[in-house]
Inverse folding.
């Protein structure tokens, strides 16, 4: 049988010594970790020592595509970018789409592993299988849009795809992202890792095709997946048309759209002013990722408000929340400008909006005053101050320097009890869902290996109302932990390792035309991805193997964090969510008490085969082919039972 | 009895309001609601929500709760309930 899917090569690049080694992508790695996040987590675990400085030369920055990336598989032009996060100290992994991930495969590479640090600003060119180091001195200081343009003008020919940092990454803001086109590997400070390595950009270009091991079988699986998408009642008619913006309305109606730094959940106002009906009026076109039939990404230009004429790709739902409800801003043009500025500077919109909301609450409570904010009046709703703070954060100017490393560092710098208003888990700022009214999503926030992240095990059952694999009441803790485990495993197995867009899997595949939630239907849905990946690669990724693989990667990432000193104490939501009920709206009164959290954590650990402290048992490690971890955990003073 | 109805998109354009208080007979089920609303809001509104099953392709919430956590389309509506009808949403 032919092997396919993979480009076959891994580039190991040492910026310190300007050395490159190109190896054959490890076949064992393919079988056990498949691609994308699986590759990133395993290589990070294997190749950096515990305690490695995330901003030091020994940290790795890993770009990893999946076996479907660059093929005709829909919505699969995606990659995982992985490093030890300087924001959290945990595994830092963010996924991104666009065209760069496919081009990386066409250039001949499944994985690009970057270590060391350059002496001078540098960019990497991976052109048709060859790797070269190029000076980025002229690019240093540029925003991400200009940087991409300059590189394209500078290099001969065309067809280059570029992932780069803006000024925020250069200034090593821990909120810095990596931008390719206008897509972001946004969270966990991966842009700061790149900036600390003085790496301005990674450029890829190729002319190879992604081989398919079993073309007929692949085609059959492809047709089946596309049939499911086409038969879906609203995927193309609604999602393609609105993008993610309707979530402002949806979460408001569920009563889980947190506003004013999580102090005022339950308002409908933001759906009215910043929801999809308002945003739809500004759409000028769509900008799909490569080979995506849904093309959810909308390009908008503001027509009214205080900032007319601002063009941005987005804002996605999270951004509309972060710079809208979370900071009390209802002028949608101000949100567009904030979104565009963050893309240009290379900043994570979620964490930046969160840290500004945090500062606004401190200001309103009198914990900080305008003397400390350079005269800015940080009342909720002050969108001029919000824009000003984004500039200041990107350049680490004045009060922006206090905020540029996220809410934990900011609260340490400010003191005076400000930590009570820092909404984060493991140092990662919380996204746009008030999980007091979505218990499974809350377990995911608290246990995701990347910190307060909505993506590792998105509870679409609660948010989208998809009753798969079970019907579940979002206010109940019964079943939440086990459902969270299912979500985390499935997101890893169906999305983040094969690298298929989670939007398409949760909506298009799991909520298909067969609306039932029987075991048989669930298996058939998982089987669609299993067929696609198996046919592409020629490897037997059976549904059972996929599930095991999803669990393996999640558990290995957890072990990385344990090795770095994380404990059960790091798996809790911010105190505010445990003592203050949601004050109004459809989820009024909802709360996740400490007792409830303890119960859910115990159940989550039990489901994953972890002990009371969250340490995997030897038996479970063996089942997952992670035996090698046992000794490492023992060295870290943990003793797997 | 009185219900709060919250609607989005084309439904809002027809009614001219996001939020409206409506009178419906006691013990109306969600399944019966399209026919009840047809009387008040007309055929165009009815065409959008009747579906097979009712409200197909739309997300319906009762006091912020999904139907599958209640009794589905057989859920009985009570005085003061808020019924929200909006397009399904996805993303994150």
């Amino acid at each position: 049988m032919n092997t396919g899917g993979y480009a076959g090569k891994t580039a190991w690049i040492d910026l310190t010594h300007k050395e490159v080694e190109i190896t054959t992508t490890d076949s064992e790695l393919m079988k056990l970790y498949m691609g994308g996040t699986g590759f990133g987590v395993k290589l990070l675990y294997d190749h950096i020592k515990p305690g490695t400085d995330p901003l030091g030369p020994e940290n790795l920055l890993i770009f990893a595509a999946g076996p479907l990336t660059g093929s005709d598989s829909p919505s699969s032009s995606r990659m995982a970018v992985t490093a030890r996060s300087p924001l959290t100290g945990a595994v830092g992994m963010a996924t991104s789409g666009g065209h760069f991930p496919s081009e990386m495969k066409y250039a001949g590479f499944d994985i690009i592993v970057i270590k060391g640090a350059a002496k001078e600003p540098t960019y990497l060119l991976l052109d048709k299988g060859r790797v070269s180091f190029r000076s980025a001195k002229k690019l240093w200081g540029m925003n991400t849009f200009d940087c991409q343009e300059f590189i394209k003008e500078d290099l001969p020919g065309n067809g280059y795809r570029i992932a780069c940092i803006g000024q925020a990454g250069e200034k090593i803001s821990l909120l810095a992202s990596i931008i390719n086109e206008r897509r972001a590997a946004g969270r966990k400070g991966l842009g700061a890792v790149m900036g600390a390595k003085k790496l301005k950009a990674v450029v890829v270009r190729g002319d190879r095709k992604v081989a398919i091991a079993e073309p007929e079988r692949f085609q059959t699986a492809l047709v089946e997946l596309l049939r499911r998408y086409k038969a879906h009642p609203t995927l193309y008619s609604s999602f393609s048309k609105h993008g993610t913006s309707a979530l402002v309305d949806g979460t408001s109606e569920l009563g889980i759209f947190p506003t004013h730094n999580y102090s005022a959940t339950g308002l409908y106002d933001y759906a009215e002013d910043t929801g999809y009906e308002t945003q739809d009026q500004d759409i000028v076109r769509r900008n799909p990722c490569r080979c995506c039939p849904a093309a959810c990404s909308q390009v908008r230009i503001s027509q009214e408000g205080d900032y007319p004429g601002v063009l941005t790709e987005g804002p996605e739902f999270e951004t509309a929340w972060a710079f809208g409800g979370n900071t009390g801003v209802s002028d949608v043009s101000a949100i567009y400008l904030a979104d565009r500025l963050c893309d240009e500077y290379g900043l994570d919109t979620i964490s930046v909006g969160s840290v500004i909301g945090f500062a606004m609450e401190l200001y309103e409570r009198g914990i900080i005053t305008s003397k400390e904010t350079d005269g800015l009046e940080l009342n909720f709703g002050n969108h001029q101050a919000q824009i000003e703070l984004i500039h200041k954060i990107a350049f680490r100017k004045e009060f922006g320097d206090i905020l540029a490393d996220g809410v934990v560092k900011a609260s340490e710098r400010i003191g005076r009890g400000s930590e009570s208003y820092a909404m984060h888990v493991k140092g990662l700022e919380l996204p746009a869902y008030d999980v007091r009214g979505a218990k499974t999503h809350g377990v995911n926030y608290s246990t995701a290996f990347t910190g307060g992240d909505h993506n590792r095990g998105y509870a679409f059952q609660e948010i989208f109302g998809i009753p798969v694999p079970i019907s579940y009441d979002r206010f109940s803790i019964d079943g939440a932990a086990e459902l969270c485990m299912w979500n985390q495993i499935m997101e890893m197995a169906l999305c983040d390792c094969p690298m298929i867009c989670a939007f398409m899997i949760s909506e298009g595949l799991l909520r298909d035309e067969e609306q039932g939630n029987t075991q048989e239907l669930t298996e058939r849905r998982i089987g669609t991805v299993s067929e696609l990946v198996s046919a592409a690669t020629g490897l037997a990724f059976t549904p059972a193997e996929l599930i095991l693989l999803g669990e393996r990667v999640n558990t290995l990432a957890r072990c990385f964090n344990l090795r770095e000193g994380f404990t059960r104490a790091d798996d809790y939501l911010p105190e505010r969510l445990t003592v203050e009920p949601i004050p109004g709206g459809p989820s009024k009164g909802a709360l996740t008490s400490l007792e409830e959290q303890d119960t859910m954590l115990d159940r989550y650990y039990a489901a994953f085969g972890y002990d009371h402290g969250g340490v995997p048992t030897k038996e479970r490690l063996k089942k997952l082919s992670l035996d090698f971890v046992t000794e490492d955990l023992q060295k870290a003073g943990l003793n797997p039972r | 009895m009185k219900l709060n109805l919250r609607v989005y998109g084309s439904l809002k354009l027809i009614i001219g309001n996001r939020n409206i208080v409506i009178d419906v007979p006691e013990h109306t089920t969600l399944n019966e609601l399209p026919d009840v609303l047809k009387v008040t809001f007309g055929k165009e509104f009815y065409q959008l929500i009747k579906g097979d099953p009712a409200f197909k392709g739309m997300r319906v919430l009762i006091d912020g709760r999904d139907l599958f956590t209640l009794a589905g389309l057989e859920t009985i509506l009570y005085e003061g309930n808020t019924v929200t009808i909006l397009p399904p949403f996805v993303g994150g």
User: Anything to note?
Assistant: The domain at 9-205 of chain A is CATH 3.60.9.10 (Aldehyde Ferredoxin Oxidoreductase;  A, domain 1). Chain A touches chain B at residues 233-234, 237-239, 242-244, 246-247, 249-250, 253-255, 272, 276-277, 296, 316-318, 431, 437, 454-455, 458, 460, 463-465, 467, 471-474, 502-503, 506-507, 585-587 (CB under 8 Å). Chain A has 27 helices and 17 strands. The first strand of chain A starts at residue 9 and ends at 14.
